[in-house]
Amino acid sequence: MGFLPDEWTLRTTYMVLGAAGGAILSIQMVLMLIGVDGEGDFDADGDFDPGSDGMGLLSIRGVASFLTFFGLVGWYGLENGWSAAKSSMVGLAAGSAMMLLVAFIMTQYRKLASEGNLDPGNAVGTTASVYLKIPGNNSGRGKITVSIQDRTHEYQATTKGPEIQTGSEVRVVRMITENTFEVEAIS
């Protein structure tokens, strides 16, 4: 007598698939909790695509979810007197639905990711507050505080017009360098 039982039944198949899928999901959950999150999806042609932005139907999570729910629902059906065909069809539907749900959730999850890179060019056209007075006629630099991408930043500023006092509101006209902007007073 080896690893396989003498009588391999549909019930045993459901139990093994449900347990295997559940074990994979449990291992992934533990790995996520300790900070190891290897995301990757398989294409239909079998190529591995780490961090794919696709739906991820054949991701490890998707396949494990399918196996878990196919096995558990199929097993439930047999235990409640359903025929083998009915328990298989309902299990297949439940597994497929769960795989689609996991793919949808992971797609939405990926959309939540954002880059923390600040683009100072986004300040052009916005209003800012003068932090240190800005000398007139491009004769020197002052400082402004401006809100970019929901964060407040301080930059050097020049103006072609007359001197602008501390506390004044200005409009950012153009970016001269990554740390310096040309501004104009708001009348």
How is this structure best described in words?
It is a single chain. With 187 residues, the protein is of the alpha+beta class. The protein has two domains: 103 residues; 66 residues, Beta Barrel (OB fold (Dihydrolipoamide Acetyltransferase, E2P)), CATH 2.40.50. Helices cover 39% and strands 22% of the residues. It is built from three helices and seven strands, in the order αββααβββββ. A five-stranded mixed barrel has the order 3-4-5-7-6. A hairpin with a 5-residue loop joins strand 1 and strand 2. The longest helix is centred in the middle third of the chain and has 29 residues. It starts with 9 loop residues before the first helix and ends with a strand.
Radius of gyration: 30 Å
Q: DSSP helix count?
A: 3
Question: What order do the helices and strands follow?
Answer: HEEHHEEEEE
Structural class: alpha+beta
Instruction: Please indicate the percent range of residues in DSSP E strands (runs of 2 or more).
Output: 15-25%
Main sheet record? 5 strands, mixed, barrel
Work out the number of β strands. 7
> Major sheet: order of its strands?
3-4-5-7-6
The coarse silhouette is rod-shaped
As residue ranges, the low-confidence spans are: 40-55
Whole-number mean pLDDT: 85
- Head-to-tail CA distance between termini: 92 Å
The proportion of residues forming helix, as a percent range, comes to: 25-40%
Total number of domains? 2
